[in-house]
Amino acid sequence: MMNKIFAAACLLAAGTMLWGQADEAKLREAMKQIGPTCSGLAKKIAAKDDSAATDAKKLQGWFGDVHKFWKAKAAADGVTFSESAAAEFKTISEQAAAGKWDDAGASFKKATATCGGCHGVHREKAADGSWKVK
Ligand code: HEC
Fold first, then answer.
1. Atom of ligand 1 nearest to the CA of 111
2. For ligand 1, which residues put their CB under 6 angstroms from it?
3. Using CB atoms within 10 A as the burial measure, which of 38, 42, 73, 120 is most buried?
4. pLDDT one-digit tens code per residue, 39-91
């Protein structure tokens, strides 16, 4: 509800600029969760820890949001990277739940190939050292 009011106010006040900033803040929020969960997942797969399935599911969900961002931005490569990430994390959650740890490890490599792929084209470092969307 608050979000809707805020979004409407932004639209009235400043048009598309504020919208863009709000969207990038959402993407950053997702990435900040994706980073540590993803490195944690690598360790869990190596340790054959059942909770890997839950983490992979969370990652799948965040990449669903990331996907929406690139779709709204009409950036086809971003859409493809985030779709493959979501699909691979879904597969990992199924493989982990079934105890197929070697398969999960192989899928994890495919999932994390999307990180570098997208960062290479769509992420750049700002002057203050923070990351931003390109
Ligand atoms: C479709 C594009 C895309 C994919 C796929 C992607 N990222 Fe990102 N990521 C970005 C962009 C753009 C930024 C810079 C935006 C920002 O950080 O504000 C970013 C920033 C980050 C950051 C820095 C967050 C911050 O601002 O402190 C981390 C950590 C991160 N990504 C982790 C990952 C991991 C891990 C994966 C793979 C599992 C991944 N990302 C996949 C686009 C992507």
1. 38
2. 27-28, 31-32, 34-35, 38, 66, 70, 78, 81-82, 85, 111-112, 114-115, 118-119, 122-123, 131-133
3. 38
4. 999 999 999 999 999 999 999 999 999 999 999 999 999 999 999 999 999 99
Contact status, residue 108 vs residue 92, Cβ threshold 8 Å: yes
Which class is domain 27-133?
Answer: mainly alpha
- How would you label 27-47 residue by residue, b for 16+ Cβ within 10 Å and e otherwise? beebbeebeebbeebeebbee
> Considering the entire predicted model, what is its pTM?
0.87
Residue boundaries of the structural domains of the chain: 27-133
- Alpha-carbon distance of 101 to 95, in angstroms, equals 7
Rounded to whole angstroms, how far apart are CA atoms 56 and 89?
Answer: 5
CA of 127 to the centre of ligand 1 (A): 18
Please report which helix (H) or strand (E) contains residue 92, including its range.
helix 76-97
